[in-house]
Amino acid sequence: MILQEMFGVDLGSDTVKIYSLKKDEILIEKNMIAVRNKDEVLAVGNDAYEMYEKAPHNIEVSSPMSGGMIANIGHLEVVLHLLLRKLSRHFGSRPIVYFSVPMNMTEIEKRAYNTIASGGDLRKSRIYLVERPIVNALALGIPITKTKGSMIIDMGAQSTELSIIADNRVIISKPLAYGGNRIDEAVMANVRKKCGLHISRRMASRLKNAMAGFSRDKKEARKVIGIDAVSGLPREGIVTDTIVNEAMRRIVNQMCEEIQVFLERTPPQIRSSIVQEGIYLTGGCTKITNLSAYLSRRIECAVKTSQYSDLSAIYGLKEIITHKTLWRWAVPARSKRRKRKF
Ligand SMILES: Nc1ncnc2c1ncn2[C@@H]1O[C@H](COP(=O)(O)OP(=O)(O)OP(=O)(O)O)[C@@H](O)[C@H]1O
Ligand SMILES: [Mg+2]
Asked: What is the CB neighbour count within 10 angstroms for residue 133?
């Protein structure tokens, strides 16, 4: 029986993914919190998302992350602790928490990870940070120690991270401050333009998840309920896949341009290794049908999609937790207290 509890935590702007070693289970919940009158926590995770865009004015439903970064430390701490409780009733004497984190964090941002996992039952926890491109690479099976240049694109909800691994480390990383949420906004705008209907963000996200894709054979449409742009009254409308995909394509093309510029600026030897190997794609947006084929045509380079998509980082953390040889990728978040000299 495993006595010590170890958790892997991938905090995304859209979803929190947590791996528990004791249970050998992954919990996936929306990164949301519902707060009444600014101080009473009503719900977190999927329960809070159920209230999103439906709750009265005195209940605020929001994500404690923004653009892949921690936006509200207090709220995130509550979300994390309550979700960990769903996986484990007893954390043991000294639980270990591994966080996958974005590259290029400031000291303040690093400290925030420390803060959210240092209170309550986690006060004796040991906290480690692992760079997200590394955990993605482990899940993708990239030989980190041998590669001469491997490129990973992590397309999340509010951020997209372009990174290159070579010489046993992440050598370049570029964050883009948008992801699937930008597609949702574009879908909302296109439905308003083409159907004269205001739809909610949740509805836009649902339409994208159901119909977004490149060169899909079958034509599709969905019945939606929204607010008429002229009368201001609720009414039904029909949204076709063409309306969704026009919007989606605009955002993906924007990403393609960024990827092309990034590749052009990569040193030639590394670029040739990337082109030879193909670019790796992870993150929830990779569920867009035929996205890899489209990107491959646009960038003129093979593109391989991770089998885990949005769960890639958490499977990488699981690899680290379950293989001692990989622990070297984890850096303690708490700097050791220096001995005082008197
Ligand atoms: N079937 C689907 N088709 C298209 N997009 C999808 C699909 N399923 C999920 N998504 C999108 O994937 C995104 C979530 O991906 P992911 O879990 O990787 O993001 P995150 O890690 O929470 O966010 P971030 O990395 O930006 O902090 C959301 O924008 C979601 O709408
Ligand atoms: Mg993510």
From this structure: 33
